[in-house]
Amino acid sequence: MIGILCDTGSDLPLELANKDLIEIVPLKLMMGDKEYHENEVTEEEILKFMESGIPKTSLPSYEDVKRGFENLIGRGYKEIIVVNISGKLSGTHNLFKLVGSQVSEENPDLKIEYIDSLTLSGGIALLIDRAVELIESGMDFRGIVFELKKCAMEKVKVFFVLPTLKFLRAGGRIGKVSAIIGEALNFKPVVSIGQEGDLIAVAKARGMKKAVGKLLQKIEETLKEKKLRAIGVYHSGDDEDTLRFVEKIKKKLLEIKAPKIIERKISSVLLVHAGKGLVGVAILLV
């Protein structure tokens, strides 16, 4: 049987996260001198802390990752596909490979393949959703791994808009985004993931409303002469403006007759780097 190992930064919708073949390892975050597993603290608590402080994130522990592998093995999975956030954005993928090498030594019959998603959040969720479809269709292990790597390199696109770069900058994740943005002038970036898996700004606009308009344009441009397989809509916080932008995006997706739409808030660890008010989409092409 084929199982999938990922982490909470994958932002899987609940119906996908609850599948037996998926095991999710919690990432960690720190608020002041306290450390939490991601599922131990609420969005409300994090946003409250962020009013006066800067939370930090860290990799899962070696033990938590090993437990993830062992849980899948214990449920009878002898072939495991590991999917993590882009290696350019986190050391999580390398940690899973390190732990997996030891697990392989202890389980000689076990097959493990590692996929650097070259993306984050909803992009990973769509990759894993595709993996589940392929597994349930009966495709073999190598075929699935080949298809997922191709999807990661060629078929997954992510676009999101941030009200502020403050938290990205504080977490050292700013990458190439800041080069075109003048925050003093209220410019907001439309952020994507480059071919190497790093954050890049692909557009900017003055104010969130216009920036979301630019995001919608990016969706249209991406789908020109290409067929959509699935799309994810993500956000952080529950501000009235944020929810209105989410509805605007969903309306657009209905207009283009998106065949599959998933929706959820971003994970706590990603919230630490984004703050409230993020809106974005992840696209999986055929």
Automatic annotation (TrEMBL):
Pfam families: DegV (PF02645). InterPro entries: DegV, DegV_C, DegV_domain_contain. Keywords: Lipid-binding. It comes from the Bacteria. Coiled coil: none annotated. GO terms for molecular function: lipid binding. The keyword Protease does not apply. Gene3D superfamilies: 3.30.1180.10, 3.40.50.10170. This is DegV family protein.
